[in-house]
Amino acid sequence: MRKIALLFIIVYSFSSCAELQQVANQLPGVMEQGSLDISGGLKEALNNGINKQVVKLTAVDGFFKNEAVKILLPDELKKVDKTLRDIGMSKLADDGLRVLNRAAEDAVKEATPIFVDAIRRMSFNDAKNILMGNENAATAYLQSSTTNALYVKFNPVIKNSFAKVGADKVWTNIITKYNSVPLVKKVNPDLTDYTTNKALEGVFKMIAVEEKNIRTDLSSRSSDLLQKVFALQDK
Predict the structure, then answer these.
(1) Mean pLDDT for each 10-residue chunk of the chain (235 residues)?
(2) What integer pLDDT is reported at residue 235 of this predicted model?
(3) Burial state string for 45-80 with b = 16 or more CB within 10 A and e = fewer than 16
(4) What is the pLDDT of residue 36?
(5) Strands, E, within the chain: which ranges?
(6) Other CB atoms within 10 Å distance of the CB of residue 188
(7) What pLDDT is attached to residue 201?
């Protein structure tokens, strides 16, 4: 009787080990699939931000008529704007503001390849940290990994855009008119650098809008993968 019981225990033990080994063999695949899902979901979310939100900025008035990202004048030029309006040159002041935004709209068209490269290089650890991070963690990842490259790309485009949209002539005229007003402190702002930085701010602000939508609004999770991955952060 004892031999039979011992034999049963040995057979059961081997059976259990076999089952455990089978589970162990499957575990790397499960973990790998989970990694792929999380990485793929975050990449899809970032691509949505670019395709749905950033593209809007490239349209005519994409900046100028969007109050969230509209480029306003730097502090040093607010007095220029006020002075011009006070002396009856409101149209010139309006034109100056509009052409800054036009140049930004032109430059953002150059952003997509840089974003695509950054998204492609995202690691699983990046994706995992983003998924469990705050509501703009994905946007912050893009911002930290693309800002320098985007600035280098945007700056010459904006400089060329100033010529294309007539911003250089408008602002030369504005600054000349202002500096000719008696007793004012003369200005000579670097509008290319200013507009470049403001264009970058606008781009990341719009990506953050889409990221927040996906994180907080279930209806914005437009694919099975987004629903599956972002359900993890809901728990």
Answers:
(1) 35 34 34 61 83 89 94 84 86 86 90 86 84 87 92 90 82 83 78 90 92 84 82 73
(2) 65
(3) bbebbbebbbebbbeeebbbebeebbbebbeebeeb
(4) 57
(5) none
(6) 8
(7) 94
d(CA 189, CA 73): 11
CA distance 211 to 48: 9
Spatial distance between the Cα atoms of 77 and 195, rounded to a whole number of angstroms: 13
What pLDDT score does 18 carry? 40
- CB neighbour burial string for 193-203, b if at least 16 within 10 angstroms, e if fewer: ebbbbbbbebb
Residue 233 CB burial class (10 angstroms; 0-12, 13-18, ≥19): middle
Kindly list the distances between the CA atom of residue 228 and the CA atoms of 43, 196, 211, 235, in Å, as whole numbers in the listed order. 14, 37, 16, 12
For 32, half-sphere exposure in the C-beta direction (CA atoms, 13 angstrom radius) is 5
Rounded distance between C-alpha atoms, residue 134 and residue 138, angstroms: 9
Using alpha carbons only, what angle is made at residue 81 by residues 76 and 84, rounded to the nearest 5 degrees? 130
Q: What is the pLDDT of residue 125?
A: 85
- For the chain, how long is the longest CA-to-CA vector? 115
Q: d(Cα 227, Cα 230) in Å, to the nearest integer?
A: 6
Task: Name, in order, each residue with C-beta under 8 angstroms of 27's C-beta and a sequence gap of 6 or more.
Answer: none
pLDDT at 129: 86
pLDDT at 28: 37
